[in-house]
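Listing S7. Sequence submitted for prediction.
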Amino acid sequence: MTDLSISGQQVLPTPPPPTVPEPFRITTNAPHQMNDASLTPGRRKLQKWLGRVLRIVITDGRVLVGFFNCTDRDANIVLSMCAEYLVEGQEPRLLGNVMVPGKHIVSLNIDEPDPQSSLLVQ
């Protein structure tokens, strides 16, 4: 570490402030497309959903909840840190990374916390 002196007094540089890590960072293989004006509205919506928690109901009644990672033109969806719910209200089974075939998806929604149930709302 180098020291700086001003009028005979030793001055040490101040360390940079600590950075807070992001909980979940989205990366893309095509960063030039993230803000591309030529994207269709559907693709823009999908990009906004990246990294959000999705709740997917599939044809056999199971509910899958996890972070939205990617999709393809066949409507297959990849979720990370996914949990499977067989019956509403029971403990989930943790699955990890899951690929959900598009042909088995009955419904899909963004799983956001209810702002009225938050302890931060006064």
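Caption to Listing S7: primary sequence and predicted structure tokens for the chain studied. The chain is about 5% helix and 35% strand. The chain has a mean pLDDT of 79.
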